[in-house]
Amino acid sequence: MLILLPPSEGKTAPPSGDPVDLAALSHPALADARRVVGDALAHASGRDDAMDVLGVGASLHQEVERNRTVWENASAPASQIYTGVLYDAAGMAAWDAATLDKAAGSVRIVSALWGAVSPADVIPAYRLSMGTGLGDLGKLATYWKRHLPAELDALADGGLVIDCRSAAYVAAYRPSESPWVAVTVQRELNGKRAVVSHMAKHTRGLLAAHLVRADARPETAADLADAAAGMIGDALVDVRLTPKAKGPDDLTLVIAG
Fold first, then answer.
1. What's the pLDDT score for residue 83?
2. Of the ranges 72-81, 114-123, 170-179, 194-203, which one carries the lowest mean pLDDT score?
């Protein structure tokens, strides 16, 4: 089982800690690729048009400025750096050592800067999205598409890939050697169902935590649907599995209004 998560837009900068050690992160084979992106990010963040290059507003000036010293900044476990709806719902910042150890083998956060990290990997806060283009590197989704498949296919090792990412991050890595299920979320209100972004992130976070803590790991899409059904009556009202001829199967989690 491999659970793929998107990073959060917002990140919490730790008050203290050592700088990132690229050799100590998961997938050390990505160290050179990470260095190239980090150097390009630091350079772009010092440009006069840095806000435009990174596609952010003036309110995020401090976060962009922090990018300039990304290699010197304090680091902390990714479980504490990534914040926001999905990560709050998963309660990831409070995961104990045993849970983080399980997640190290089954959860990857796909990142525009790091490529992919586990919740236990120690990283600094940064501001960068997968849709950004950085100079000669071009679009980061295209850049990481050259580096991630070998690493993540090997980690999945033919097991079920459970995808909770948004489209921009799917573009950086699409499983080719494992069964693949994309998790979608719909809200049911007055007999009608619709996608609500905030609640989709929340429910995906609940599912990720549910799966990491479970004793049994789903091996098929049907197993995953059964595991998700264990949340019915708490977070969900229905679970629907739709096999697809091409691309990932679809697991739809339905929440009440």
1. 93
2. 194-203
> How many domains in the chain?
1
Q: How many helices (H) and strands (E) does the chain have?
A: 11, 10
| Domain that includes residue 147, residue range | 2-256
CA distance 154 to 158: 8
Closest by CA position to 64, among listed 44, 40, 48, 45:
45
The kind and range of the H/E element at 4 are strand 2-5
Q: What is the DSSP string of 94-129?
A: G--HHHHHHHHTTEEEEETTTEEE-TTSEE------
What does the pLDDT average to over 239-251?
93
**C-alpha separations of 196 from 130, 187, 201 in Å:** 22, 7, 9
Structure token digits, residue 91: 């309660």
Q: For helices 197-213 and 221-229, what crossing angle results, to 10°? A: 100
Q: Is the pLDDT of residue 23 over 90?
A: yes
Evaluate whether 224 touches 243 at the Cβ level (below 8 Å). no
pTM above 0.85, yes or no: yes
pLDDT at 216: 81
